[in-house]
Amino acid sequence: MTSEIVHVPSKWRAKHPHGAHLNGFLEYRTLYEESIRSPDTFWAKQARELLSFTQDFHTTRIGSFQNGDNAWFLGGQLNASFCCVDRHAIQDPDRVAIIYEPDDPQDGSQSITYAELLRHVSRLAGCLRARGVRKGDIVTIYMPMIPEAVFALLACARIGAVHSVVFAGFSAGALQDRIVDAKSKVVITTDEGRRGGKVIHTKSVVDDAVKDCSCVSTILTFRQTGGDVPWTVGRDLWWDEEVKKYPAYISPEPMQSEDPLFLLYTSGSTGKPKGVLHSTAGYLLGAAVTGKYVFDIHQKDRFFCSGDIGWITGHTYTVYAPLVLGCTTIIFEGTPAYPSFKRYWEVVAKCAATHFYTAPTALRLLKSKIKKEEIECFDMRQLRILGSVGEPIAPEIWKWFHNFFGSNQTTLTDTYWQTETGSHVVASLAGVTPMKPGCASLPCLGIDLAIIDPVSGEELTGNLVVGVLAIKQPWPSMARTIKDNHDRYMDTYFNIYKGYYFTGDGAYRDHDGYVWIRGRVDDVINVSGHRISTSEIESALLEHPAVAETAIIGVPDNLTGEAINAVVSLKERENPIDIKDELILHIRRTIAPFAAPKAVFIVTDLPKTRSGKIVRRILRKALIGEREFGDISTVRELSIYWDFFRILTSI
Ligand code: WT7
């Protein structure tokens, strides 16, 4: 691993004459140590500074990892939409809250001020209330990346409803599971969406999804394209006809700090996706503190996070962090490849973005398509801070990103975190921490990291250690539970290493104490920064009538980081060519296109132990072309493994 250090460029300081919120690396060290030594004092001070409580809290924190009952800022009352909208609208109504950059650049962008945002959010909140949504109810949102999706999140928060956003690339079946689990009365969607020049049929997917859901009484549809869509009178309402009936201001519902703000489904290593539940005050504080210190957000900034609102990155860094800190967030509807591979540069230059936060998978694609001369015409001088998220960023991609977007004059922060952590947990602080290309760097303020030896379960102290990554002390934005399954929450995160939160990732601490993330140690695959469990795809494949047994394996991939490979044995002999395509289509339809296997291998049987457990280790090694299989003495029949190996090498 390279130890090369990139210091904050001197030109960065010229771009940012008032300097970062922290005055240098030593100040981070001091504040970090204080935050670990006296976490309650640190977090209480941050909460009072960055959030607006309408009633102050009396107790900073209670609970423990062992009991899984952590709670923060007790006695406090606040409202997330007030913190993200009203207080800025009062102070500076004409400040731009959202810049919308549509899929097709010909359509022209749109700006929404904080005063306008307050009106949009209030009207929609009034409409939701009129449709029977009450405090604590869960509203499902299935929308493309448009400002109305932001209004929807904040309108839920305003009346104390819990939002559950489902990524608009999920299939009707996956959406149905989530609507039913949440028992949503109201689903918010659009007639259609646009992405990369293609139409996405959001309303018809919602219609398919709710066919058997008796709980849904309202589908509120924003008219985005004007396309023809299926309609059920009584249940379906047009946003433009309804929302205008409600007042331009309704007062925000006072919420307890621990009241849930949202639910977001994510894949675990086993079973169905889990509904991760986040609290109001703790979550919002995590967004605010990391937005302020990791990304050095100031109110004049224009923050461009390309993360879709359907994932946690979109929640925390497209919506909550920029708005809670009162800057401008850029909502980009499109993709990096449409109408050309120059699109991200166009958006950054046109919106004069100060920040650009994206995923290595997009960068790998762009690196293979773009030559420096093609992008030299873009004025990127406003850009100060780059960020990467979702998977490890290889040093050469880091350097390319720094050069091609930042002309080596910006900072670049690799941010490690998870749906469950709510906000960054390992990241360099922009303008403060010396950077190492490819390295997530150092723990964020208030995050007490540990590297654990997976064999002994003991914490490995000091530098030059490798093990699994854990967190030792509670932090405010940690998920509070998995909906309807607190046991699963305890078993996944807290019962593996007692007294620690277990991340599921491997990590290495180098000689400077910098942390390098090495990827998942469980059965979770990371494809283009999307997290998907092997067992979820396996269960879906087993539902196909032709499939007898299957194992899903993640293999390294140059473009997507990891790629999904399916090894399948069939019940009867079918034409393996036809069946491969059919199985891929089956996953696209039942889960989502991003979960579809890149390759399917048909075998007569899968290698198993004598007790019948599939030996994935052998499959993985065979798929990546390794000839050394290690100890295979427990594998039932070696002949099966040879059969498998022969098939693979012949493909
Ligand atoms: C998993 C969490 C949190 C934002 C997007 C994904 C991987 C995330 C990094 C990074 C190496 C990373 C981990 C983690 N991951 N960021 N900077 N370096 N790995 O959220 O879907 O909850 O996935 O993504 O494996 O556990 P998520």
From TrEMBL:
InterPro entries given for it?
Ac_CoA_lig (IPR011904), ACAS_N (IPR032387), AMP-bd_C (IPR025110), AMP-bd_C_sf (IPR045851), AMP-binding_CS (IPR020845), AMP-dep_synth/lig_dom (IPR000873), ANL_N_sf (IPR042099)
Q: What class of enzyme is it?
A: ligase
Stated EC number for the protein is 6.2.1.1
Annotated ranges, domain AMP-binding enzyme C-terminal:
536-613
Gene3D superfamilies found in the cross-reference section: 3.30.300.30, N-terminal domain of ligase-like
Recorded hits in Pfam families, A to Z, give: ACAS_N (PF16177), AMP-binding (PF00501), AMP-binding_C (PF13193)
Domain AMP-dependent synthetase/ligase: from-to ranges: 86-475
Could you tell me which residue ranges the Acetyl-coenzyme A synthetase N-terminal domain spans?
28-84
What is the top-level taxon of the source organism? Eukaryota
Under Gene Ontology molecular function, one entry of this record is: ATP binding
Reaction catalysed by this enzyme: acetate + ATP + CoA = acetyl-CoA + AMP + diphosphate
Keywords carried by this UniProt record: ATP-binding, Ligase, Nucleotide-binding
Q: Name one GO cellular component term.
A: cytosol
Give the record's GO biological process terms: acetyl-CoA biosynthetic process from acetate
Q: So what family is this one in?
A: Belongs to the ATP-dependent AMP-binding enzyme family.
Name of this protein:
Acetyl-coenzyme A synthetase
The organism named in the record is: Penicillium olsonii
